[in-house]
Amino acid sequence: MRLARIDTPTGPRPVVQDGDVWAVVVDHYAPVLERTGETHAVDGARLLAPCEPRVVLGMAHNSGPADRLVPPQAFAKSARTVIGPGEPVRLDPAAGKVVVEGELAIVIGRTARHLTPEQVPGVILGWTVGNDVTAYEQSAVDDKFTQSKNGDGFTPVGPWIETDLAHPDDLAIEVRVDGVTQAEASTSGLAWDVVEQLVYLTSHLTLGPGDVVLTGSPSTSAHVIPGQRSDITIEGIGTLTNPIT
Amino acid sequence: MRLARIDTPTGPRPVVQDGDVWAVVVDHYAPVLERTGETHAVDGARLLAPCEPRVVLGMAHNSGPADRLVPPQAFAKSARTVIGPGEPVRLDPAAGKVVVEGELAIVIGRTARHLTPEQVPGVILGWTVGNDVTAYEQSAVDDKFTQSKNGDGFTPVGPWIETDLAHPDDLAIEVRVDGVTQAEASTSGLAWDVVEQLVYLTSHLTLGPGDVVLTGSPSTSAHVIPGQRSDITIEGIGTLTNPIT
C-alpha cells in the first residue's frame, strides 16, 4: 500500500493510492484506514513530505561491519528540516561543503518504547526514501552534529510511504546528481539492521506516529553544489528528487 | 504579560493572565494577542506546558567563564520529552543516575534564521523555567547526548511564559528537591548569554514559533530518585514543580 500527503486547493491531505487516484483518508495512523470519498488524480498531484514527524533521528556510524564493533549511536535532526519531494535543499555558503546521503527511512506508526525485536514490525507504518543532508565540514567541529545536520531543507523525505517491503534489509539504493550515478549500495551494507536500530532507540526514548528514523548511509553520499539536482532511488519504494539551491 | 496553556473541559487553550482569570486567546504567536472572551479562574486551572515546540535545543558546556574558551555548542532534545508543570519525570532504572537541571528557557515567537544581535529581542516570545533532565551516566557513553537527554518527561517547562524580563542575563535560579535547596546560582553564570546563543544557533538552523532553547545550567543540577519532587524557581518567572517517578 502506498501512502502520501498531497497538496489540494483546500489544504494538505493524507491519501492512499487506489490505482490512478489518490484517495483521501482520515488519518494514516488510525488502526483502520478510513477513506473520506474524496479523490485526486495521481497525475498532476503535488506530493508533500509523506509524514510530519515530531522526532527525526539518524543513525551515526552505521555503514559497515566495523561499525558493529562500537555501540550503535544516533543523532537528532530538527523537525523543521523536513521537506517533501521537489522542495529545495538550501545551502548556506558559510556552512561549507555539503553531501546528500541516500538512506532508507522508517516511518513510525504508533507509540514505541522499550521494544523487543518481535514488537518492531508492529510499530512501523512503512518506509520512505530519506536524504540525510550533511554539511560535513561542520561535523568536524561539532561532535553533537547540531551544526552539520540542521540546515534548511536538510531532511528531504518521500515521495511516499510504502507499507509493504518484503526485505528492508536488502534494498538497492542509488544516488544520482544531475542524473549521473554517484553511489550505488544496498541496505544490506548497514551495520545495525532495522530491528536492532528500533530496539536500541526505543530503549532510550519514545517514538510516535509520524516520527522518522534515517537508518544510515551505506556509502550512499554525494557532494552537491547549488544548481544541481539530487535523485535518490530505493528499490521497492521510488525516487526522491530535490533541487539544491 | 504572563502567557500559559491550560486544560479546559473542551481541550487545551492558550491563555493570557488578566488579574485573577486566564483569558483565552486565539494564538500566542499572532502579532496582536486577540482575546476570545472565554475566561477561566486562575485558581484551580490546570497548567499545561506553555508552548508546543517542534524544536528543543540545549546549550552544552555553557556554565562558566572557561566555556568561552571553546566554541558554543548545542544539542537537540526530542519534542516528545516536553511536559508541563506537575507532570511526572519518568526514570528508567536501566539509564542510571539522573539529575534535574534548572535553566532559563527561551520561547521563540517567530521564524528566526541568521539573526544579528539587534534582531534577537524581536524573535523572543518570552521566558519560562526549563528543566533539562539528564541521565548523566549515558552522556559518558554517547557524545551525541541522544541517550542521556531523551527519557520520558525529560524536558519539563513552565509554569507559564513571562514576556517581560528586564535582565534575563542576571536572574537567580534555585533548585530544590523535596523542598530542600540543592543549588543556587544566576543566569549571569552562563558563559554565552542569550543574545550570543541565538545568534550562534540561528547561524546554523531555523527556529520557529514555540521552539525552546534551554540556555544552560550554571551549576544548577541536583541528583534525583523516584518518589522525590523537583522545584525550580527562576527570579521574575516562577516555580516549575514536577514529581519524579
CATH architectural group of the largest domain in chain A: Alpha-Beta Complex
- The computed structural class of chain A is mainly beta
Q: What is the count of structural domains of chain A?
A: 2
Oligomeric state of the chains present here = homodimer
The fraction of residues in strands of chain A falls at 35-45%
CATH fold name of the largest domain in chain A: Fumarylacetoacetate hydrolase, domain 2
Question: What is the CATH C level class of the largest domain in chain A, in words?
Answer: Alpha Beta
Largest interface comes to: A-B, 34 and 34 residues
The string of secondary-structure elements of chain A, in order, is: EEEEEEEEEHEHHEEEHEEEE
Mean pLDDT of chain A comes to 97
The percent range for helix content of chain A is under 10%
- Please identify which CATH superfamily of the largest domain in chain A we are dealing with: Fumarylacetoacetase-like, C-terminal domain
Largest sheet of chain A: 13 strands, mixed
Total number of strands of chain A: 17
Number of helices of chain A: 4
Backbone CA Rg of chain A: 17 Å
Distance between the termini of chain A: 33 Å
> Residue ranges of chain A: pLDDT <50 for 5 or more in a row?
none
Q: Could you explain the architecture of this structure?
A:
Chains A, B: One of its GO terms (molecular function) is hydrolase activity. Chains A, B: This is Fumarylacetoacetate hydrolase family protein. Chain A is mainly beta. Chain A has two domains: 2-47, Roll (SH3 type barrels), CATH 2.30.30.370; 51-243, Fumarylacetoacetase-like, C-terminal domain (Fumarylacetoacetate hydrolase, domain 2, Alpha-Beta Complex). Helix content of chain A is 9%, strand content 40%. Chain A contains four helices and 17 strands. Chain A has helices spanning 120-123, 136-139, 146-149, 194-202; strands at 2-8, 11-18, 21-25, 35-41, 46-48, 56-59, 74-77, 82-83, 98-108, 124-131, 155-162, 172-177, 180-186, 212-214, 221-224, 229-234, 238-243. In chain A, the strands form two sheets. In chain A, strands 1, 2, 3, 4, 5, 6, 7, 8, 9, 10, 11, 14 and 15 form a 13-stranded mixed sheet that branches. Chain A is globular, with a radius of gyration of 17 Å. At the A-B interface, β7 of A face β7 of B.
